[in-house]
């Protein structure tokens, strides 16, 4: 079968369904994201991923409203920024106000690290005089997660999860006595240069979905010219991006390609059915090219991806 619009959905552990392909909006400015979300919804996307830290929630919400598509048909995710970790109640209320929504479908802890909200050197990423991020080393994301569970019970978010969590941090969260509601997803960087096979196996075992951010390899991606990917794309007569998105779905992960270009937003919603041979070729690229993590901010001596 040739390229077709994605209709795949996965089940969250809550029983809700989540469209496999969603629009990523990191690095999409307010002015760009409005048209991007409208273009995505017109194409058929029903899943939009944003975050407080992307500073574009207002425009995302306005586009959702202006699309005329009933709210319950769209899966909306936003995230608790590190600077908000001490007060998730206000953080989600503020996000809902900006989005002009009564609830989100998914609320994630964006990073397993809290930043000092009393340091006003920067609205999102405050730093110390030496330039390091002002990390609250004694604060535990377990305490934020406790509050997220309350927010889920109140219905302000239909489900809760995490992002940028390692196996070590996930294990601690799952084993903690205060964790009564399991995270439904872990959103992480995933692409053939960073397949995170152990994390994928671990999360599948625990009924947690992995969500792929930067699935195309982010800006100026070397993946789009990788010879294996280009060859498979030529075989299917589609773009390399379509192969990366199809591979993500093939291996059972949600995928969140970001674009503000309408033609790309449209083509990124196309999926091809990969043969198992092609899937394996894509699985094996990292063995030759090595592992490349593209997004790895410095958290003042905390290595959030330490053992992955
Ligand atoms: P733009 O937003 O200007 O269209 P990722 O999802 O891995 O973070 O990648 C996002 C980057 O890839 C952005 O620079 C985006 O550019 C670009 N991009 C998105 N879709 C495609 C595509 N189909 N082909 C080439 N580049 C793309």
Automatic annotation (TrEMBL):
Full protein name: 2-dehydropantolactone reductase
Site for Lowers pKa of active site Tyr, residues: 79
Binding site for substrate: 110
Highest taxon in the source lineage: Eukaryota
Reactions that this protein is recorded to catalyse: (R)-pantolactone + NADP(+) = 2-dehydropantolactone + NADPH + H(+); isatin + NADPH + H(+) = 3-hydroxyindolin-2-one + NADP(+)
Class of this enzyme: oxidoreductase
EC number: 1.1.1.358
UniProt-annotated catalytic positions: 54
Keyword terms of this UniProt record: NADP, Oxidoreductase
NADP-dependent oxidoreductase domain sequence ranges: 21-285
Any one GO molecular function term: 2-dehydropantolactone reductase (A-specific) activity
GO biological process, alphabetically ordered: ketone metabolic process
Family label: Belongs to the aldo/keto reductase family.
């Amino acid at each position: 079968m040739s390229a077709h619009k994605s209709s795949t959905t996965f089940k969250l552990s809550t029983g809700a369904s989540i469209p496999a392909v969603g629009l990523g909006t990191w690095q999409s400015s307010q002015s760009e994201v409005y048209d991007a979300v409208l273009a995505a919804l017109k194409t058929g996307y029903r899943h939009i991923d944003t975050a407080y830290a992307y500073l574009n929630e207002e425009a995302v919400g306005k586009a959702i409203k202006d699309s005329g598509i009933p709210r319950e048909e769209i899966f909306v995710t936003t995230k608790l920024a590190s600077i908000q970790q001490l007060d998730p109640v206000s953080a989600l209320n503020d996000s809902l106000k900006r989005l002009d929504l009564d609830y989100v479908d998914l609320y994630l802890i964006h990073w397993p690290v809290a930043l000092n909200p009393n340091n006003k050197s920067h609205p999102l990423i405050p730093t110390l005089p030496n330039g390091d991020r002002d990390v609250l080393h004694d604060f535990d994301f377990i305490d934020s997660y406790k509050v997220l569970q309350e927010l889920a019970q109140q219905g302000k978010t239909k489900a809760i999860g995490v992002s940028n969590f390692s196996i070590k941090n996930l294990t601690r969260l799952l084993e903690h006595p205060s964790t009564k509601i399991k995270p439904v997803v872990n959103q992480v960087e995933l692409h053939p240069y960073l397949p995170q096979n152990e994390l994928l196996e671990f999360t599948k075992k625990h009924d947690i979905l992995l969500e792929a951010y930067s699935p195309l390899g982010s800006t100026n991606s070397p993946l789009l010219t990788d010879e294996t990917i280009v060859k498979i794309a030529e075989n299917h007569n589609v773009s390399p991006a379509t192969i990366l998105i199809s591979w993500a779905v093939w291996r059972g992960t949600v995928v969140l390609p970001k674009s503000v270009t309408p033609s790309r937003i449209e083509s990124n919603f196309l999926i091809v059915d990969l043969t198992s041979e092609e899937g394996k070729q894509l699985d094996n690229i990292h063995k030759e090219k090595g592992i490349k993590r593209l997004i790895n901010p410095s958290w003042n001596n905390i290595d959030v991806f330490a053992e992955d």
